[in-house]
Write a structure and sequence with these properties.
This protein is an alpha+beta fold. Helix content is 46%, strand content 11%. The termini are far apart.
Length: 218
């Protein structure tokens, strides 16, 4: 009796598993191949391509997210100062390297201060900080025509809400703002070309770094 019960339970389990598997396979007959294995990302590439073609996708937002992920976009300052220190110059150099890869794109620098001092003074100080960053970007070969009018938020947008001195509030933030007027929709029509150009450049080693073995001597 006990053996018969075990066999019955085992058979029932096999039927249930088979039915479940068959249902998944046969229901996928009218769906994309392998769709029942989808973890939530199936079709995203097609959706992205559709958004690209109809102009729905916002390239300014996308490129700004890429910029923020690739380089430090924030530069911090000493109290009551717009002088760039070594860390700030290093961050701006990385920004310039990225910006130089996209000559079709414009950028904007926003200046901020902490909450010490008057509103009017801090607005002027925030602008000086933004100008300092623009000057440093220009020193690294970035055309000023691609750096839109700087904006100073002064003390109005602190990261840390405190009336005391706070270095994290004393900053500039560089962001993508748009495209050069001569070709405002380049990312829609020639995005593949730009990506290909960047890919080729990143894969090409400078001639002075190419080494085919030990240095030959005469």
């Amino acid at each position: 009796m006990r053996v018969t019960l075990k066999l019955t339970l085992a058979a029932s389990t096999m039927v249930a598993l088979t039915a479940c598997t068959d249902q998944q396979i046969f229901s996928s007959f009218y769906d994309e191949a392998g769709g029942y294995l989808d973890a939530g990302q199936f079709g995203n590439a097609t959706m992205n391509n559709t958004l690209v073609q109809n102009g729905t996708r916002n390239y300014v937002v996308d490129l700004n997210e890429r910029f923020a992920a690739a380089v430090p976009t924030t530069v911090n300052f000493a109290f009551n100062s717009s002088v760039l220190d070594a860390a700030a110059r290093a961050a701006i150099r990385q920004q310039a390297d990225f910006i130089g890869q996209f000559p079709e794109v414009r950028f904007r620098v926003y200046g901020h201060t902490d909450l010490v001092g008057s509103d009017a003074y801090n607005k002027r100080l925030g602008l000086k900080r933004a100008q300092a960053v623009v000057n440093e970007l220009a020193r690294h070969g970035i055309s000023r025509s691609r750096l839109e009018a700087m904006v100073s938020y002064g003390e109005t947008q602190p990261i840390v809400a405190t009336q005391e001195r706070e270095r994290r509030n004393r900053r500039t933030v560089t962001e993508v703002s748009g495209f050069v007027k001569s070709n405002p929709i380049v990312m829609d029509s020639r995005y593949a070309e730009i990506v290909h150009r960047e890919y080729i450049e990143s894969a090409t080693a400078p001639s002075d770094l190419i080494n085919f073995g030990e240095e030959q001597t005469e």
